[in-house]
Fold this protein.
Amino acid sequence: MSTTQPIETAKPVKRGAALLIVPFLVGVAVAVALGVYGVVHEPTNVAVNLAGFSSALAAKSWLATVGALLAVLQLVSALAMYGKLPGLTAPAWTGTLHRWSGRLAFLCVVPVAVHCLYAAGFADYSPRVLIHSVIGCFFFGAFTVKMLVLTKKGTPSWALPVLGGLVFAGLIGLWLTSSLWFFSSSGVHL
C-alpha cells in the first residue's frame, strides 16, 4: 500500500493584499511630490487672512482645530460602525455621519495645507517645523491611499481601519505641531 504525500508549494501572494500596492505607490508619490514641491518652491510668505480672524496663523489654527475635532468624530463613528464600542450599537445614520464628517474635515484642512505649502514651503528651521512638514506630507499621502482603497473591492478587512488610523494619527500630529503650539504660545483667540 502506498501513501502519497501532497507536494508543498509556495503560498501565493494574497490577491487582497496585492490590491493595496497601486494605492500605496500613488500615496507615496503624493507625499513625495508635496515634499519636493515644498522644498523647491520659493515660499511667498504671503498670508491670506480670513475675515473674523486676527491673523493667518489664527485662521489656520482654528481650521485645523475644527478638522481635528471632526477627525475625532470620524474615529468614534468608525469604532461604532465596526462594533468596537462596548454597549453601543451604531445607529443607521452613523455611516452618513462618518462620510460627511470626513468630507468636512478634509475641507477644513486643505486650505491650511495650501497656505502652508505656498506661503512657507517645506521648512526645517526647527524640529517642530520639520516634524510638521514631514507629517503634512505623510497625512496627504495616507489620505490618498485610504481614498483609493475605499473604492476597491476585495481588499483585506484590516486595510481601511489601519489606513483610517494612519490618517487620524497624521491629522492629530499636524494639530499638535501647529494649532496646539500656536494656542499655547499666543493664547486661545480668534
